[in-house]
Amino acid sequence: MHVSDLALDDFRSYEHLVVSLEPGPNAFVGANGQGKTNLLEAIGYLSTLASHRVGADTALVRRARPGTPQPSGAVVRARVVHGQRPSVVEVEIIAGKANRARLNRGQVRPREILGVLRTVVFAPEDLSLVREEPGLRRRFLDDLVVVIKPALAGVRAEHDKILAQRSSLLKAARAASRGSRPPASMMSTLEVWDAQLAAAAARLIAARVDVLDRLRPWIASSYDQVSRGRSRAGVVYRSSLLAHEGLPEPSPGGDDRSAEEAALSDTAATAARLEAAMTDLHHREIERGANLVGAHRDDMSLFLGDLPARGFASHGEQWSLALALRLASYEMLRHDVDAYGGDGEPVLVLDDVFASLDAGRRDALAELVAQAGQVLVSAAVDEDVPAQLRGARFIVSDGEARRA
Ligand SMILES: Nc1ncnc2c1ncn2[C@@H]1O[C@H](COP(=O)(O)OP(=O)(O)O)[C@@H](O)[C@H]1O
Ligand SMILES: [Mg+2]
Q1: Are residues 365 and 246 in the same domain?
Q2: I need a labelling partner for 193 at 20 to 30 A (CA). Which of 79, 286, 300, 308 fits?
Q3: What is the number of the ligand 1 atom nearest to the C-alpha of 34?
Q4: 111 with 158, same domain?
Q5: What angle separates helix 184-226 from helix 315-335, to the nearest 10 degrees?
Q6: CA of 30 to the centre of ligand 2 (A)
Q7: How far, in Å, is the centroid of ligand 1 from the Cα of 125?
Q8: What does the pLDDT look like over 253-292, one tens digit per residue?
């Protein structure tokens, strides 16, 4: 698929922008702060209804200069060519209120536009996927789970709701127990929540393990290409059950899923293990007032060779690994014919990537993505756009993007 036209109103630094894009490579060139990332962010937002840089949507609405009228919302609209049928998809971001969405001019619920435009965005912020807290890696997996199986968005939401309710109950039990045991009625309510949380978490975990399994060969091959075969990237699902059950920490593994991952894909067995762990942990959970085991405490462990990437890999290696995770998502979605009937190739967005790569890695990446159905890249100067990606070129400056 590709975006053929994009229009922005009051989005970030753009008061009004209309631009036509081409299939294949499109390069956005301009000095820092001119609006390259803003434009790419708008495209990503239309695809996921979330920004890759901020949690709160209020930052997305243009802040007018003092003395000029402040817009109440932003509009992002795109024409997406997917197979034979183009679709026009639009979202209106209203400061402090729910979004409004339109598909082919008809009003729809925002959720209904998800999937019309598929993107994979790589931005410098993705370095945190390798470096930071497990929460970002869980979100990476969960987002892919939902792209592949939209029905699992419901399971994810249900899981989060049960988790919050169980957490409130644990806090209430802590307040009620004060040195002794909490009332029996609270304990029996807790057991009901144990079963519900275990069931929802087990479904989410099985879906994550499945996605990781599909992703694994692409992570290895993407990293191999980006790093020019310097070391091997490995990825293993790390369950919070391991520590509780006294099982060893995951090791780098190989091309196949580990025995532990295979076990986690059995939803009924995982639910039973989680419920047993919660029963053992009740006392500590009440003391802490927090859920201590489950999908929300799991991680995706990343390795380069035999060493964990977090804490051991160099800056350049971490960067290449983060990039490989996004490229792997792209390759997986592009090749996942069952999920999309063969026409689901996402638009690939590479924000400010090439300047940070040495010449060898830059060429390897350019070769890898040159054949993409549509790839949008940004760079501060023309020299940072590899020759393989010379296609449509746009100059971004002062709230405008003009075809050059
Ligand atoms: N909501 C907003 N309203 C107006 N300007 C904004 C808004 N959000 C960001 N900007 C401006 O956009 C510019 C950053 O644009 P960005 O796309 O990140 O630049 P780059 O071309 O370096 O990627 C900054 O000058 C910032 O002040
Ligand atoms: Mg930028």
Answers
A1: no
A2: 300
A3: 21
A4: no
A5: 100
A6: 9
A7: 16
A8: 777 888 899 999 999 999 999 999 999 999 999 999 999 9
Please tell me the predicted confidence (pLDDT) of residue 384: 94
In this prediction, residue 14 carries a pLDDT of 97
20 and 96 in a single domain? The answer is: yes
Structural domain for 64, as ranges: 2-118+345-403
Residue nearest to atom 9 of ligand 1 (CA): 12
Task: Please choose from 8, 11, 12, 54 the residue to mutate so as to test ligand 1's pocket, defined by most ligand atoms within 8 A of CB.
Answer: 12
- Distance of alpha carbon 102 from alpha carbon 189, whole angstroms: 43
Residues in the chain predicted with pLDDT less than 70, given as ranges, are 179, 337-343
Residue 343: what pLDDT? 57
Distance of CA 295 to the CA centre of its chain: 17
Neighbours of 69 (CB within 10 A): 6
Question: From atom 16 of ligand 1, which residue's Cα is the shortest distance away?
Answer: 35
Do 158 and 238 lie in one domain? The reply is: yes
Was 30 annotated as part of a binding site? yes
Residue 298: both structure tokens together: 């799991």
**Domain boundary, last residue among 309, 329, 363:** 309
Whose structure tokens read 């964990």?
Answer: 308
136-168: burial string, b at 16+ Cβ within 10 Å, e else: ebbebbbebbbbbeeebeebbeebeebbeebbe
pLDDT digits (tens, 9 = 90+) for 311-353: 899 988 999 999 999 999 999 998 875 555 445 789 999 999 9
Q: Whose CA is nearest to atom 25 of ligand 1?
A: 33
Q: Nearest ligand, CA of residue 380?
A: 1
